[in-house]
Amino acid sequence: MNIFRTYTVRCLRGSPARTLVTIVGVVLSMALFTAVLAGAWSGISWLRQTEVDQDGAFHGYSWGLTQEQARAMKEDPELTATASWRDAGWVLLDRSSGFYPYLHLAAISDNFTDLVKVELLEGRMPETESEILLPSDYYVRMGDPEWNFPEVETGQSVTFLVGRRCAEDGTPLGETDDVDLSRRQEVIADGAERTYTVVGFYAEFSYQVNQGRIPAALALTGGGGTGEERVYFTMKHPERFEEFCERMEPQKVASHASLLRYYAVLGNELTAILWGFTAVLVFLVIFGSVALISSSFSISISERIRQFGMLRTLGATRKQIRSAVFWEALMLGCVGIPLGLLVGCGGIGVTLWLLRERFAVFSQTGTLMRLAVHPLLLLLAAGLCMGTILLSAWIPARKAVQGSAIDAIQRSGKAPLKARDLRGPSLLGTLFGFPGMMASRNFRRDRRRYRAVVFSIFLSVMLFVSVASFTDYVTEGLALVTDQNSRSDLLVSQGLTYGKMDPDRVLAQLEQAEGVTDSMFHAITYQDMALKEEDLSEDCLMGLKDTRIPHTVLLKDGEAMYAMHLIFLQDSAWLQLCEDSGLDGAALLQAPEPQALFYNRQVLMYTGYDNVRRWVAWDVLSEDAFPGTITGRAHTELDGFVLYKEATDEDGISTCWYYPEDYLDEVVSSGGELDESRAIVLSGKDAWTETAYHVAASIHEVPFAMRRDAPLLFYPWSRIREVLGEKLDKGPIEVTYSFRSDTPERTAASMASFTQAMENTDAPVVGVDNSRMVESLLELANVFSAGFVVLITLIAAANVFDTITTSVALRRREFAMLKSIGMGEREFRRMLCLECVSYGFRGFFWGMLAAAGVSRLLYLVAASSLVIQWHIPPYAIAAAVIGAFAMVAASMVYALGRLKGEDLMQTLKTETF
Amino acid sequence: MEMLRAERLTKIYGKGENEIRALDGVSFSVEQGEFLAIIGPSGSGKSTLLHILGGVDRPSGGTVWVNGQDVYAQKEDQLAIFRRRQVGLIYQFYNLIPVLNVVENMTLPILMDGRKVNRERMEELLKVLGLENRRTHLPAQLSGGQQQRVSIGRALMNAPAVVLADEPTGNLDSRNSAEIVQLLKESNRRYRQTLIVITHDENIALQADRILALEDGRIVREERIREVRA
Fold this sequence. Notes:
The complex is a heterodimer of chains A (913) and B (230).
Chain A (H helix, E strand, L loop, with lengths): L2 H12 L1 H40 L4 E6 L1 H8 L4 E14 L9 E7 L3 H4 L4 E4 L7 E5 H6 L15 E11 L18 E17 L13 E6 L7 E7 L5 H8 L4 E3 L1 H4 L8 H45 L4 H37 L1 H7 L12 H27 L3 H7 L7 H4 L4 H19 L1 H37 L6 E7 L6 H8 L5 E17 L5 H8 L8 E3 L2 E11 L1 H10 L4 H6 L4 E5 L2 E6 L5 E6 L9 E8 L5 E8 L5 E7 H10 L9 E4 L4 E12 L12 E5 L3 H5 L8 E9 L2 H14 L7 E2 L4 H40 L1 H9 L4 H39 L10 H27 L3 H6 L4
Parallel strand pairs in A: 3-8, 5-7, 14-23, 15-22
Antiparallel strand pairs in A: 1-9, 1-10, 2-3, 2-9, 4-7, 5-8, 6-7, 11-24, 11-25, 12-14, 12-18, 12-24, 13-14, 15-23, 16-17, 18-22, 19-20, 20-21
Helix pairs in contact in A: 1-9, 2-8, 2-9, 2-11, 2-23, 8-9, 8-11, 8-12, 8-15, 8-23, 9-11, 10-23, 14-25, 15-23, 15-25, 15-26, 23-26, 25-26
Chain B lengths: L1 E12 L6 E12 L3 E5 L6 H8 L7 E6 L2 E2 L5 H11 E4 L11 H11 L6 H11 L14 H14 L4 E5 L7 H17 L3 E5 L3 H4 L4 E6 L2 E7 L6
Helix pairs in contact in B: 3-5, 4-5, 5-6
């Protein structure tokens, strides 16, 4: 081996602790690079997989192909797989409706489901020509008199008149021709009766699979077909999709755009954001790694700078010295990079595995997140890491050959210390005497080296605090946003005539749908409430009087008029709410007067004059107001009369004009004048009817189906008659059934069969719950940022450890000298402790300053879309203080431990190196 | 035959008020095989002169010729090769590489050159230096005298034109000092190597062929003790 390589290997072996720390640094950096890149790649792969699970793996399809063209396409070397369907005829089901008159039969190839997702709602895939799989569109319209679709069930046979789709004049029409009954009549040519066995129903293809070109419901059969062909394909290089289209006659090629955008083919912001985010992280990792590895190298080099000088006096060229340093870097890289690769893949793999369910929430298909590793990306990570190491080595390598050889020997490559370097007031000296002065001088005499320590602490503190405040902003902001929404995954609403139908029974039925994890029902009515000013909480009163905060509450005559929701909650849910709030629900339910629970919170979001969006939240009523009554106020209602006009005089007394309903209709429709003598006029108190609502207690939590940003009154459903009285009979009351489910789509599909049988009900509404997504997002953000901070902090800790232990080792002689002139063990320790405090404080101070800046920036970015307040979480500051000083202290203790075993006087006598 | 010539060498550190003239127009020449001792008080510029002669530190002015070659007319890499092949340097503090063993330290200039080690010469040197049983020891495992002998071995291994020694016995006891001087003289005689030694020890100086006395960066005295053997 070349003598320089031998020398390097011996040096590495000679100081195992330093070599280990440097390798740990390399491992951490590589682990971070790998984790960031593999994480991003897993993200992209997961996004692709969600699309594949949703619609299939095809990249695009071409339609209207002759058999010849289809064959040529299937043999195209650019394509890796193809699947196809062939036109197997048209059935004209309903001539009167222009919307979906046809059933189009498509004979699919055996491998069709390899490329295209067919979601079976019932039954199985067709296997022969005489088997047919019908679409959900058919299922829905079956038996509907408006449509003329024959009713069938899985396993039954159905006979259709199958033929070619033609215009009346015989012009053949295909799947791209719209139905235009005003322009032409259409007929089925060459029709023949054919009987099929229905093997099941599938969910209608999405736009991605079938871009709405066919004016028909699409039925699949298992073979046969003689008409035009449609070929779905995957490509060897999806990124060349556009070139391929140009070659293929672009008008006949459609893309699976939602999938291809994750191949960055058709432009996608999400992918760009993901990669952008990754780039920022990679940059941060490079930043941290260069800091760590270069400081580690520069320390190990400065330890050896005299040796390099020596080698140069003996005739080593600069190139040889430099290559020795690079060789060292290469060796450390060769050990650290593979280890880092394993650690990184393992770390991110376990993280993603633990979070796989969380990711599934984001995809409608429930696709699980898996670790995906791309060899090229690993190579890129290794390249980046190696680049970082070489860059880190380059800096000290340059230093090692700077100046003349004799400089290196005599001064260890450092510029001579000048008196002015040490000048300036020393707080430590003033406070702690000689040890303090020495500590302060030590810092000043080699600022560059100690800057590495300060910088490492700075970096960890800054990253930790910034990330903590960012997570806080997001948590707060999103929590407020979700306050406005209920946390239901699925809603079914029904207009219900009181007494005719029992919502408990309906709910019991709906609950049986697949995947329901929680359910409840409630009904809502509105009521203006006059809250007494003395009952309002201080915060609320101040807020309502603050002219900067816009709100709709009228504050007048010692009263605040709130438009409030009265919520009639399923009894069991109401009892649960009582129990959650520590109340005796059973007793309240049986109380002679219906008792309400008051959700005592109001959240207002507004944009201030300074154009900054803010939010305020307060308790509406003070706790003294409970239990008590609140007054509902509504215009007096007169049977057969309608309130037409209202006027308020200077004293605030209102007068109302009521006209007979029939008369008013008549005059308004004929455009005549109203005869005031026919009006009933009510004034002052008579114009208003007041109702007392008994409120048992205030609560601060609501069931999952409720929003949380406005005051609410909760009554049990069983007391609705007593609360609303005759109002209940005036018309149907809207009851909402809310459900939680981990698979809302599936639950909705399963619930559809129940809702079809229900009166006055629309299909279930899915996807109103953002909070679950927000929770998942926050958890993901927290886990990833925590992981990132931990790793960066580890890097920084390694850095601090490295710098401090070396600086202590390098000053061995000096320590010996100090001891020899009478510095005691205690003073010696004190001096070192003060040095630690000095580094820790500097790093912490600058780190906090930078963190405040970053946090402010993050706030400004976040405030544009979320209503939040700028702050730095105190726990983060506390953790940063403890962390910064602990890091320094631990390193010092270690270094001192190493010094303890040495005979310092012997060190003093030795001048060799 | 003239082996080394210094012409009007100056070395200035610092600028303006802080300017220090370590060497101030030093000129002299040394014959092949001559043993020259340079003496002078601390700070007189002896070590600076030696480093400049060895191609280790550049002069502020003047030239150095070794074996007919203008040393500082060479580029940095050529200068490194010059140091490797033409000069053997011996320091007071040995300056051995702690992670290399005796043989590796001794053969370092040859290994750096990528040449093959002359085993015969190495064995001879080990024998002469009394290091035969220490060949795989690391510097930390050797006494001061032994370490200095290794550094002499390193200086002689390459059969350089000039051997420069800076207080080679400054850190050794009298017995070791005598041995080292004996070794240097022996190599000077046996290999006809030009030897320049800096010393403050009069006994050593008096064993040289010629003595140069430096003071404040100038040659203040030159004394020939004996003629150089032809």
